[in-house]
Amino acid sequence: MMIQMENNIVTFANNNTVNKEMPIQINVEHVDIYYGDNHAVKDVNLPIHEKSITALIGPSGCGKSTFIRTINRMNDLIPSARCEGTISYKDVNILNPKVDVVQLRKEIGMVFQQPNPFPKSISENIQLPLRFAGVRNKKTLRKATEDCLKQVGLWDEVKDRLDRSATSLSGGQQQRLCIARALALKPDVILLDEPTSALDPVSSSKIEELLLELKNSYTIIIVTHNMQQAARIADFTAFFYQGELVEFGETRKLFTNPEKKSTSDYISGRFG
Amino acid sequence: MNSKVTNRIALSVIFLCAAAMAAILLSMLGYILVKGVTSISWHFLTTSASPFLAGGGIKDQLWNSFYVLVITMLLTVPIGVCGGIYLAEYAKPGRLTSFIRTCVEVLASLPSIVVGMFGMLIFVNYFGLKYSVLSGALALTVFNLPVIVRVTEDGFRALSRHQKEGGLALGLTRWHTIKTILLPAAFPSILTGVILSAGRVFGESAALLFTAGLSSPDLDFNNWNPAAPNSPLNIFRSAETLSVHIWAVNTGGIMPDVQTIANGSAAVLVISVLIFNLIARMLGKVIDQKFSGK
């Protein structure tokens, strides 16, 4: 089915904030990912700039989720997954098997498509990872809970029921809680794998606003199915197709003047 | 036949099956309770059994049933839950894992009399534990362990993958994710499985005939020193449980009120299992609420 989408309805709310000066925080070089014999991601090279939003777009099955899950080694959970190449972060190749994945995941946090708060109280959702990271002081924990919830704009909505189950929140609130939980560990990078695709439009736009705010302090990589979303919030966009990184560039340029034909076909809705 | 009719037929068949099941259960329970409740009295519950006179009770047997159950659960639950966690979370798919899983399944389907004979050969004779609470509990462990392993594994597998990913993505180690997130989330289903298996253990007789024995010493309920031969807590004494008692009384009882004793014991057994279920369910609910926030 063809979905007609004219380029001119895409808006660029974020186009003034692109900062080319931002140094590269994560550099991806020649990354190949396999599931058994299936070559899911092919020779990807991609710079991720500090304190900016990089969006990964592309049709389903193009490898973008696989790729983002490699950046904090979540693909280790899949026994058949294998990864080659270099992802350098702080002068270390993340893909090196000797890397301490527990520490890595504290610095590179992740938020998933399906909001996944733990079936525990709201405050416990934020305090559990903190306690594991060694924070024991109750006052510090309470303060951190408040700070994180304020950062995601959830504090006023939940401050009177912090001991209620997190699963009693709405989907959008749950997803913001998951982002708050990831922020609690003060990561450098936050990975978001289609964070709004299970949410209604109002909740989605709240999350988008939140991400635009968060990029002042964090590096954000987001996988999205929604091209307008990428256009609205991302500084850089990478277009994946059939496991290859077809095109990468500043969002405005990629959407208005793509170099490759398949990019322009995809963003104008000719496939995908 | 149109689909509406098919739908209605399917619904009726399912409803009938469910109703038949409930009816069988209720009529059996009703039969046992109606016949047995009249024999239950405080005297019946708190008097020792008499080998040949009328008016004996089931105090020791009742205690033995609970005691063997507790010891069995102390042995099986920790080992079974650990085994289940291993199979669900750590074991890599492969020959060894499927071999372990097959063993668990075979173990679970062993007839209990076979487990009893095995228990007699190994625990009673080879290890010299004689007819004792411990031998009985060990035999029941053989028989109950696979159930707990299975229940735990299923409980963990039923959890959403997202919970585990959420924990790991927050820099928790695998073990910490299991301990603080997955185990509490799986707890209600594990507890339900443990309750059901406890009912089975409580009512088991064949596996206990040759392991816990057909007699008990005269228990002195004032002597709680576990080393004393007639102490209720001694795990090296023989222990006839309630269900073994029902079997023994029915097959070879020479007291004049055999029927009354058998009926009363059966009713007590059923009521105990029911109470046990209810308490454990309530406990599970409370604990679940505590873990997951109000």
UniProtKB/TrEMBL annotation, chain B:
Localization recorded for this chain is: Cell membrane
InterPro entries tied to this protein: MetI-like, MetI-like_sf, Phosphate_PstA
Keyword Oxidoreductase attached: no
Q: How does this protein sit in the membrane?
A: Multi-pass membrane protein
Q: Where are the transmembrane segments?
A: 9-34, 66-87, 99-127, 133-152, 181-202, 261-280
> Does Hydrolase appear among the keywords?
no
Keywords, ordered alphabetically: Cell membrane, Membrane, Transmembrane, Transmembrane helix, Transport
Give the matching Pfam families: BPD_transp_1
- SUPFAM superfamilies, A to Z: MetI-like (SSF161098)
Instruction: Tell me the Gene3D superfamilies matching this sequence.
Output: MetI-like
Top-level taxonomic group: Bacteria
ABC transmembrane type-1 domain location: 62-280
So what family is this one in?
Belongs to the binding-protein-dependent transport system permease family. CysTW subfamily.
Q: Which PANTHER family match?
A: ABC TRANSPORTER PERMEASE PROTEIN YQGI-RELATED, PHOSPHATE TRANSPORT SYSTEM PERMEASE PROTEIN PSTA-RELATED
Q: What is this protein called?
A: Phosphate transport system permease protein PstA
